[in-house]
Design goal:
alpha/beta; Rossmann fold; globular; seven-stranded parallel beta sheet
């Protein structure tokens, strides 16, 4: 299998994209650290992975706290013997206009969506280097990080930051044989921070269907496998082609 003897961390793994990705990575041989702030959701995902013959552990982590991030990475390395893959998937959105959002709301979105990506990447990279692993990091960005929106100002800023952070990490970690890339979804599965998918939510893309978590999970699997060995510092748009459409057409 593609990821036999590999160890992967997936953040925000208790539902939606993170859940589907954790199951896919486990099905291809990886031992998966299912990281989520909600133990119940993480337990469910791990239970399903183990029942299917895979290997996974639960790690409860509030990613707005640096010490919890560092402790999580250390625990994963201690439990599984190393670390090869990190997928920074966790995020929250504000869904607010600049005239309505307050600083506390802004700070929370930046902390969880952008700063946690930086901190997890830093801790994971150190573990990969210490273990002499050929590491791979994939950051989940968003089309919101590339285009202006009428709402979600903090989320757009955070995801735009993740786009630039990915490139900086790719350059700085390349000498350590760690590849860093990103994926760019648009309206895949349930909205950020929600458990249910609204079938009435407006979808405009070239596939004429909503994105499903497995769509993004497959792209991430490609980026963390040897199939993408010559791909680094870039992004794969998994948006059904919505970003190719000119407004008004």
């Amino acid at each position: 299998m593609k990821l036999t003897n590999q160890v992967a961390i997936v953040t925000g793994a208790g539902r939606n994209i993170g859940e589907e990705l954790s199951k896919l990575l486990a099905s291809t041989g990886a031992a998966v650290a299912v990281v989520d702030v909600d133990k119940g959701r993480a337990d469910k995902v791990v239970g399903e992975i183990v029942a299917a013959g895979g290997k996974a552990n639960v790690y409860v982590c509030d990613v707005s706290h640096e010490d919890q991030i560092e402790d999580t990475v250390k625990s994963v390395v201690a439990d599984f013997g190393g670390l090869d893959i990190l997928v920074n998937n966790v995020a929250v959105s504000d869904n607010k206009n600049v005239l309505d959002i307050n600083k506390e709301e802004w700070d929370r979105v930046i902390a969880i969506t952008l700063t946690a990506t930086f901190l997890f990447s830093k801790a994971a990279a150190r573990a990969m280097i210490a273990g002499n692993r050929n590491g791979r990091i994939v950051n989940v960005t968003s089309t919101s990080g590339y285009y202006g929106r009428s709402r979600a100002v903090a989320y757009s800023a955070a995801k735009g930051g993740v786009v630039s952070l990915t490139r900086a990490l790719a350059v700085q970690l390349a000498p350590h044989n760690i590849r860093v890339n990103s994926v760019v979804p648009n309206k895949i599965g349930s909205p950020v921070g929600k458990d249910t998918f609204d079938p009435g939510r407006k979808i405009v893309n070239l596939r004429n269907r909503p994105g499903e978590p497995i769509d993004l999970a497959r792209a991430i699997l490609f980026l963390v496998s040897d199939d993408s060995d010559f791909i680094v510092g870039t992004e794969i748009f998994v948006d059904g082609g919505c970003s190719a459409i000119m407004p008004g057409t």
